[in-house]
Amino acid sequence: MKCPMMVPAVMVFLFVFSPVSSLRCNVCINSDSWDDCAKSQAPLTCEPDDSHCYRRMEKVVTEFFGQTFKSTTFAKGCATSDKCSTEAIDQCKSSSASGSQQIGIKDVKCDMACCQGNLCN
């Protein structure tokens, strides 16, 4: 006995209950270099709201009690579309000490790039 209604029912079941394919991005954070970040990176399945992978480098110069401190951060990870909007990337690239509300920050340099696709960063 054939059941012609069985095929559509199975198709609907598979569509509704199939696992959602999530974006995967490389994730790392390092204070030395992109090479060292890449050596320690690991693939991560992003949250459902994340639609982009990113790379971000930030250099900050601070001064406290006459002493100057420099820090650099290299990071990769998952991001939502608003964190990778043109405005957000432009804000990163145009960041400066004058725009900072934090006391002691003398200079900020930031560079950020986003991409869409598994492990594209």
From TrEMBL:
Segment forming the signal sequence: 1-22
Highest taxon in the source lineage: Eukaryota
Keyword Signal: yes
Keyword tags: Signal
Gene3D superfamilies, per the entry: CD59 (2.10.60.10)
A Pfam family of this chain: UPAR_LY6
Keyword Signal on entry: yes
Spans through the membrane: none
Protein name: UPAR/Ly6 domain-containing protein
